[in-house]
Design brief:
Layout: H1 5-11, H2 39-49, E1 55-61, E2 66-71, E3 74-78, E4 85-87, H3 99-108, E5 121-125, E6 130-136, H4 141-150, E7 156-162, H5 172-180, H6 185-195, H7 209-218, E8 226-229, E9 234-236, H8 241-263
Parallel strand pairs: 6-7
Antiparallel strand pairs: 1-2, 2-3, 3-4, 5-7, 6-8, 8-9
């Protein structure tokens, strides 16, 4: 199991705050923290203090007077000297938006076009102009819930990666292989979620289940279903139809912006 930052901090005997809220009362901004270091220096300091931790991006947030740091799988905050680390969510009190969550999504983005889509099976609904990718476990009840929701979503191309989580569903890998080895993977997948019926084969054809497991680990997919939208945003959970439509729309809009910026 991957170590969490809380465990890392505890092991290093560092006391981390459980939450941080951006409070702007009567139009006053939070007190600024004097910043004297550069992102590269902060990264070096944190790597020295937390040996073995994966320190990614370090970005200054002027509004908070802190640096946002990608620490293992979490976004945390630190000062210019890396003398303390704050773990938790920052909210904009005016919009009630979770700023930490939004930034975390930016950090975790992947290039959708870089996904090995040959490891997934494809479903095209309506004109198929929009796109999403899903890591799904055949025996996951939340995946079953998402499949029902997808019936109400149109004009989208869905790439599904078979991602059995053995620790939770020990028979899912076998079922995934059988579904993949069916002459019609989409039909077999739909039939399984509708009635539990499995194709009549031994699941011994050339299949991507092992490669998909490696891909999921690389992308830090730890739960199913996990969705990837057009802009590369990674969102876990069985979203409702309303949430799914909102995320698809946002993903397409952000993907267009990213493409336009890249072409300049």
């Amino acid at each position: 199991m991957r170590r969490t930052i809380v465990q890392t901090l505890a092991a290093a005997a560092i006391l981390a705050a459980s939450a941080l809220f951006a409070i702007e009362a009567a139009g006053q901004a939070p007190a600024a923290v004097a910043l004297t270091g550069e992102p590269a220096q902060i990264k070096k300091l944190l790597e020295q203090k937390f040996q073995g931790a994966n320190i990614g991006s370090v970005v200054k947030n002027p509004a908070l007077g802190l640096y946002e740091v990608q620490f293992d799988e979490q976004l945390v905050y630190t000062d210019a000297k890396a003398s303390f680390v704050i773990v938790g969510n920052v909210y904009d009190t005016a919009t009630k938006k979770n700023l930490t969550e939004a930034k975390q999504r930016e950090f975790n983005r992947v290039a959708f076009d870089s996904l090995p889509l040959d490891l997934a099976f494809k479903r095209v609904k309506g004109n198929g102009q929009r796109k999403i990718a899903i890591f799904s476990d055949a025996d996951c009840p939340f995946c079953a819930k998402l499949e029902k929701t997808l019936k109400d979503i149109d004009n989208v191309t869905i790439y599904t990666f078979l991602y059995p989580i053995d620790q939770l569903h020990p028979d899912s890998a076998r079922k995934s292989r059988m579904i993949w080895c069916s002459p019609d993977v989409v039909k077999a997948w739909d039939a399984f979620f509708e009635s539990g019926a499995l194709p009549k084969n031994n699941g011994d054809c050339d299949n991507p289940v092992v490669k998909t497991a490696s891909l999921g680990q690389k992308l830090r997919v730890s739960a199913t279903p996990t969705l990837i939208f057009a802009d590369g945003s990674i969102v876990p959970g069985a979203l409702s139809a309303e949430q799914l439509e909102r995320e698809i729309k946002q993903g397409e809009t952000e993907a267009a912006k990213l493409a336009a910026a890249k072409s300049k």
